Known about the structure:
Layout: H1 9-17, H2 30-43, H3 51-65, H4 69-82, H5 101-114, H6 119-132, H7 146-153, H8 156-161, E1 177-178, E2 189-196, E3 199-200, E4 203-204, E5 207-213, E6 219-224, H9 229-242, E7 249-252, H10 261-269, E8 273-276, H11 286-300, H12 310-327, E9 335-338, E10 344-347, H13 356-362, H14 376-383, H15 388-413
Helix pairs in contact: 1-3, 12-15
Amino acid sequence: MNINDLNTIEQLEQFLTGSQAVAFLVASSKEECYRGIQRTLVKFRYPSLKKRSKGVVVRFLIKITGYSRQQITRLVKQYRDTGKIERQQRTYQGFERLYTAEDIRLLASLDERHNTLSGPATKKLCERAYKLFNQTQYQRLAGISVAHLYNLRKSQSYLRQRYTFEKTRPKVALIGERKKPLSNGEPGFIRIDTVHQGDQDKQKGVYHINAVDEVTQFQVVCTVEKISEQYLMPAIEQLLDCFPFVIQGFHSDNGSEYINYKVAALLQKLLIEFTKSRSRQTNDNALVESKNGSVIRKLFGYAHIPQRWAPLINEFNHTTLFPYINYHRPCFFPKTITDSKGKDKKIYPYECMMTPYDKLKTIENAGNYLKPDLSFEILDKVALNQTDDQAAEQLQKERSKLFKTINERDLKSG
């Protein structure tokens, strides 16, 4: 029996139970299959059938077409509503693309210049570029959400353009007071730490002296050949001189390069309070240690750099790195909230992200903390002399020149 010979609901039930032999052809196209479904519904007058009979017809259509119950139900509904079954080609409305390929390339260039900062910091740079420096190409990126910024970083356009290039032992000493420094919201209380640039063939590399102000996150990096008194004392004097405000406190870990009588005498002469980290209080020097990774390791890496290059690196730190990280690189700043139990908790809202120099200007009576020969008019000229992008491009250019010089001369000497 051919499938067209099934004319009653009873015959359909026999077919479904397998007691009726039926021969039928498989439709060669979706349109032909839809026409066959429509003929069946018309043939059995589907709208006038009882509920049980309708179920038999639906099961029959599922069996001969291979469609799911949901698909057959949709097609039957279309027949009941319109009297016919037609294929409806899906059209995708989609969303208008807000960020163009040019925006993605601009973001990739920005990340390359600034060494891929966090999402909020990158968003802040886009806002500053558009609003502060009138760089109109950043107009759309200035309004991007942090979450979607990370989505753009995963895109193929972005990835095609981008390419990529620990603790001292404690020692008991009676120098310095073992306590956490209390800045009370005033600038001038610095945290200091040393970063070693690797060993090679039993030869020590250069040492980076990293100092960060607790309140403003103003940062000064000096590079020396060794951490002996001969090299360290001039470096400490240099970094104390680089800060635009008067230094009131000096906090270090318990490394012997700082916990010695020479450093203590220098700080006492300058009327600077000398404190050191407490036992089992790992967060006492956490601020500067975080900057060790996010700034120094990101710029110089972990590979060995011979000690003879310390003066050249120190010149780079002073002329190029210092203005970039303090006037053009946004940082998160904490906001303290008190819960219902009276416990203080620090949060880091996006609204509190700014450059160290901008943070300095927000402090009440900030001008009173500046050194006598400085004013905000002078510092504003330094801050606005370059855009964030220009400062970052100069940093990348000078760093490439620095490493090219080091590598070429090392190869010649080797």
